[in-house]
Each structure stands twice: as structure tokens, then as C-alpha cells.
Amino acid sequence: MRIKAVMLEGDSLGRTNKLAPLEEFVDLISYANTPKELVVERCKDAEIVILNKVNLDASMLRQLPKLRLICVTATGTNIIDHACARELGIIIKNVEGYSTHSVTIHTFALVFTLLSNMPYYDRYCKSGEYCGSQIFTHFNKDLCALENKNWGIIGLGKIGKSVAKSALGFGAHVSYTSTGGHPHDSTYPHKPLEALLSTSDVISIHAPLNDHTYNLINAKNLSLLKEGAILINVGRGGIVNEEAVAHALKEQHFYYGTDVFEQEPMRADHPFLDPSIQSRLLLTPHIAWGYGDTIKKLVAGTIENVKGYLETLKG
């Protein structure tokens, strides 16, 4: 009898069934999306569950007696109650390193868009204003360079190191803070969070969401940001207090770019939709991980995780 596997969020990997090759090894049922109230029902007979952002808390896990493997089509696994999974003998597998290059690209896409005031210049041309100009150029907004700027990194893991290396290539001075509180890399100067925020021209977040990082950036320390600083979050939404950022953007002069939100999709009354702060806000819908062949790498890693589990059953 073949093992049953359920994919709860097929659409998160694109519009086609990227995990179809698994059908050679398991009986796979794939759902485009799965609301919370249907998770247990859809997984009740599955030995393998594949997901991305659907939460599996302790109460859900205890209702899934056949479940033995959870494959997360991502790096972060904070959506699962690890303690309960260990108690029940459920293995959790993720895919590490698949998006390092991709997230690095997106980090710089956000930074360069803000440094160059690109949305303003794009609108200037498309609105027809440029057509009526008396001169060939138009410098109405600053164009800022990275050379000799201070770039602070929050979370110096694989992605943080990749961003640091690229930032050096553009002439920036790199420092970092360890979200665990312990310096672990002598390549770059380590600073406490408060010092990093107060001295950096660009700050990018590449940390996981956990007890140490939830609400790490908040109303108290946002006040430390330098005039004109750029804060980028490509880690997890809960690391930054979004209400505090929206309020601070009205009181301080800095820029915020993010690809992640505490609630995804954004809620309809989100403070970032306030028209008064749009000029210093850049938002993207959790796409940093999807450049180039990244999704192919993610799918290949997930398939290998399933095959690895099946190999253990043969012994």
C-alpha cells in the first residue's frame, strides 16, 4: 500500500503542480490553498504533509495519528509546534539555502529603488511631465550611493553573509548584530542592536522569527534611526512592529521596505496603506525567494526530503 501525502498549498509554488514527480513514490493529493478549518480534515489520513505557511499547532498535530513527516517548502519552520512534533515522533524537514541568492537580489532591489527614488522618476516620465521639460535631465529627488555608507545587518546567516559580501562590493562599510546576543563572526564588526540602528545608513533584516526576534524592531528603538536611513525587512514580518513603523514614518524621516508582513496577505486595514506615508514605503508581496531557478531548487529539495524519509522505511 502506497504512502499518502498531502500538499496543502500548491499555489505557493506556482500555477502548475511542481510536485507531480512525487506521484512516482507516493499517493499525492494537492490542494491549491487550505484554510485553517480544513487542515485536519485534509491531513487526517496522510503520513506526509507538505506545506509552506499553514500553521500546524499542537491541537492539530494530536488529531493526525498517521502523520510521520512534515515537509516545509521554505527555510523557516516556526509555523509548526516543534515540541509537540518531537513528542509524537513526527519528523520536520525544510529546505535550507535554496533562496540565498534570490533574497540577496531582492534586498538590493528594495534598497536601490529607495536610494534612487525610482518610483518618483518613473512617474515623472510616464505622467508626461518630462515631455514638457526645458532641459534633458531632471534632478528633483536625491540619488544616493552606497559608497562609504554604513550597512548594518540583523542576522548574519547565509543570506546575511551574502548581502554583506555584495554590500562591500558597492563600497559600503558592513557591521552586524547577532539576534541571539552572541557574536559569531569576526569578518565584520559586531554591534549591539541599538548601536547598529543609530549608526547605519542601511539596515537589512535576515533573521528568523523566534522568541528572541519577535517585535525586535519597535517604537522604542525606531527612534534611534539616522535621518534618511533605509530599513529593509526580508526576514519575517513579526520581527518588525508594523504599527510602530507606520507611526514613526509620520514623525521621522526614514524609509522602510519590506517583503514580509506579520499577517500574510496584508489585512485590509493595514497601517501601511495610509496615503500619507507612501512616498517613504516600499512593499512587495513575499516574493524575495522566487527569483530565477529558486522554486525549482525548492521543489527538488522537498522531493529529496520525501525520498530520504521513504529510504528510512526500507531499513
TrEMBL record:
Q: Which UniProt keywords apply?
A: NAD, Oxidoreductase
Keyword Oxidoreductase in annotation = yes
Question: Is this entry keyworded Oxidoreductase?
Answer: yes
Instruction: List each copy of the D-isomer specific 2-hydroxyacid dehydrogenase catalytic domain by range.
Output: 16-310
Q: Entry's SUPFAM superfamilies?
A: Formate/glycerate dehydrogenase catalytic domain-like, NAD(P)-binding Rossmann-fold domains
Please list the residue ranges annotated as the D-isomer specific 2-hydroxyacid dehydrogenase NAD-binding domain: 108-288
Family stated for the protein in its record: Belongs to the D-isomer specific 2-hydroxyacid dehydrogenase family.
Q: What is this protein called?
A: D-2-hydroxyacid dehydrogenase
Q: What lineage does the source organism belong to?
A: Bacteria, Pseudomonadati, Campylobacterota, Epsilonproteobacteria, Campylobacterales
